[in-house]
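Suppose you are handed a protein chain with no further information: no name, no annotation, nothing but its sequence. What can you learn? This example shows the usual starting point.
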Amino acid sequence: MSVFRGKRIGMEEDMKRFLDLISEEMKNAFEAAGYDRELGKVTLSNRPDLCEYQCNGAMAGAKLYKKAPIMIAQAVVDQCADSKVFSEVTAVMPGFLNLKLREEFAADYLNQMVQEPKFGLVMPSKPCKIIVDYGGANVAKALHVGHLRPAIIGESIKRIARYAGHEVIGDIHMGDWGLQIGLVITELKERHPELVYFDESYEGEYPSEAPFTISDLGEIYPVASSKSKEDAAYKERAMEATFKLQSGVRGHRALWRHIMNVSVPNLKQNYDNLNVEFDLWKGESDVQDLIPGMVDYMKKEGYAYISEGALVVDVKEETDTKEVPPCMILKSDGASLYNTTDLATIMERTEKYHPDRMIYVTDKRQELYFEQVFRCARKTKLIDPETELLHIGFGTMNGKDGKPFKTRDGGVMSLELLVGEINDEMYRKISESRKEMDKEAEETAKIVALSAIKYGDLSNQASKDYIFDIDKFTSFEGDTGPYILYTIVRIKSILNKVKEQGGIPENPVIRGAGSEAEKALMLQIAGFNAMMETAYSETAPHKVCAYIYDLANAFNRFYHETKIVTEEDQEKKAGWIALLMLVRDILETCIDVLGFTAPERM
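A reasonable first move is to predict its three-dimensional structure. Written in structure tokens, the prediction is:
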């Protein structure tokens, strides 16, 4: 009666998830016993000390069939006598079914994972086109710790969706057209009024070289920002400079181009250091020419109207239980806002790409803002009806004091400084375990430091605040990135030793487990596909982190109980080598979708 029947899983059709195959076997048993097969759903055991999996279907069936659940459970047990999936099925009062799997079934499934592309993960028949909008950097401003979470989370969401078989476009969507540009231009004029850019009668060519460096910009913007908060007249001049830029004044446009040419390469370098790659380097400026047409369309179709001088679109719905203000399209002075450029960007993406999903990764405090923008885009038909708009709101990255992460003197820490501090800490820890430090050790420290930063963030559910604890994140023990990398490096070291002994056998085959630790490791591996599907469908990188932490723990327990390199039984040893290679490959696949890599040694 077995659904497995010793067949090679997944040869004729898509490879099924491990838990689905187990449930299929249990459903057949319920049906054979005369009960509804849907009662046979199997879950992971919540008492792993008693069994590996469990089924509570007999409890649900008691009311339906007016029988004691233990009677139903016992009848199902009788149908599992010749199962090729279960080694043990036990009915426990008042009617639970405790399940243990045959080692051969688990081994065969793992061997199929080795053979299949992406370990048997089922690819979509019709891949989605997805745009992930993340990063949100502003030109002319240094990246700070607040830019860390959108970069890390967005990059991982993009990579997970790609691994799941979808076409994904990552867009940084820079802030390159707003007040911060006006502030820089204003401060520049205060310092150097003689610059040709401020002579509105000038008609010649502007210099090809910028009148400032990236370091200058890093100093100019904070000064200008501070002045604008204290001096209303200064802020007024900055707003006027912004208006001139957006209106096309030549000198202001030329300075803006210089700012872009100096800032963007620096941004790319900083993101490159985080192993974050954008397919599109678009900004608010890219849609400026679309805004007048979009505004005319909204007016003509009756969506937009004037309210207190501003142009707005009502987005409130009858089902709302809280106040949702109108979405402002233009301010009373005719200036555009973030709403305006975001809506024009949605319109452009729809016309150019017709995406199935647009995912925005920003601070969760922007939830209402995106609710307004998404509703406005849908109401005004700027997107295709079937396009999903999704906002992933993340929590705050806090220091050990529970408050937003700051420098020692209370300022907002630059991203470059933060990454540098963690690189230094990782280098110090690695140097303690090595006699000689060389260029390789420096590179290793950077790789491990990046795992500490990214895993430290991604192991938390995105929407939750978390404590950025350098000591904890850089530890080689516990739920950390360095621990995961240490496990991968340990596996590589074992495989290298086996190679030195005489080589790894060709196409080794995973065999039935010889110990509880080995079986637990095999069952952990088998859950990869279901985990990856969930991580994609729930846009949840923390699911990947939880999985690889459990997998690393399962491997290390097996490793400590097993003498792999010195094993004399060559068949048994080959089976272990096959198992190790699969664990290594899955761990490296998982850290790749999280956005970091593993060194060869540590």
